[in-house]
UniProtKB/TrEMBL annotation:
SUPFAM superfamilies the UniProt entry points to: Osmotin, thaumatin-like protein
Claim: Signal is one of the keywords in the record: yes
Pfam families, A to Z: Thaumatin (PF00314)
Signal peptide coordinates: 1-20
Protein family per UniProt: Belongs to the thaumatin family.
Disulphide-bridged cysteine pairs: 29-239, 77-87, 92-99, 146-228, 151-211, 159-174, 178-187, 188-198
Annotated source species: Kingdonia uniflora
Sorted UniProt keywords: Disulfide bond, Signal
Protein name as catalogued: Thaumatin-like protein
Amino acid sequence: MMERFQVFLLLSLITSGAHSASFTLINRCPYTVWPGILSGGGSRPTPSTGYVLGSGASTVLSIHAPWSGRFWGRTQCTNNGGRLVVCTTGDCASGQVGCNGAGAIPPATLAEFTLGGYGGKDYYDISLVDGFNLPISITPRGRPGCGVSSCSRNVNSVCPGQLSVRNGSGTVACKSACLAFHSPQYCCTGSYGQPSTCPPTNFSRVFKNACPQAYSYAYDDKTSTFTCGTGADYTITFCP
Ligand SMILES: *[C@@H]1O[C@H](CO)[C@@H](O)[C@H](O)[C@H]1NC(C)=O
Ligand SMILES: *[C@@H]1O[C@H](CO)[C@@H](O)[C@H](O)[C@H]1NC(C)=O
């Protein structure tokens, strides 16, 4: 009886998504990227919360479902004797390679995941709600019928001047209109606090036109969320 119960428990753990997903992070940018990872509230921390990937480099980590959290890339970080001091974009202000529970300071392109979520499925998206700093794609592996979500355009090159974050002559990141203007219309707050009262704006359309598969603002249409059956592995590519 006891043994049968244990087998049942084990089976329910397996079918409820208590598997581990393998994440491969690849840097195809012509510059070094410092990926950061933030686990959501209630999710177990990942084995590491930050990496350094030279151009062309990759790393693999495994994450136990259920889990939710986000990945992003930091750029132009200054390294001082092995310690990170500061990154020009996507900084998490930890002063280290690991972000240790700190998130990206916007603007930053985010790859967001819920593993083993509603219905035991995985949900993932690319979000430009906090702005853009570098192109990212999410490629599921090992399960048929799961879509690739990609924001491969360099939004910095089409960023309106009012949203642009510059370093020298170049735009290194593009703020969301919410971040730049803090207004209810762009942040979908106050009387704009519902999908029906917060339509796209001329600013959010700049992001949507460049990266149609990504969330361009808080109440963007739900086509930007992708779903995959449990048990998939994922590749996150910087500059796909
Ligand atoms: C601007 O870019 C240069 C070259 O990539 C970098 O060394 C520097 O730290 C950046 N400036 C700021 C303010 O982050
Ligand atoms: C959007 O509209 C505002 C107000 O009319 C204007 O100031 C801004 O330049 C426009 N932005 C873009 C990207 O067209």
